[in-house]
Description:
By secondary structure, the protein is mostly helical. The chain has 7 helices and no strands. It has helices at residues 2-10, 13-18, 26-31, 35-38, 56-67, 76-80, 85-97. It is globular.
Amino acid sequence: MRSVIAICLLLPWEFVQSVEPELGTADWAISVSCTGCHGTFGESVSSIPSINGMNEAEFIRKLFEYKQGKRPASVMDRIARGFNSRDFELMSIFFARQKKGPR
């Protein structure tokens, strides 16, 4: 929980304001750690895949594949090992709700 709070303190104020309806919910709190690489709301601006709007079941399946070493990865396999199945479920709910495209 301390790491989530620390990450939240580093977020730009505009980002915090833009997610105010989700602010404080468990799915937002656990998912904010993904935005450093996958972009705000899961929409990447780099070669890292966007995860916004992804089907919940597909999201969870991919994370378990990373965690079990069944999916090729540079760092996602190690990152996924730090989360449990409930975390994966909460993240999948949050990113499935995020729309693709401009806000």
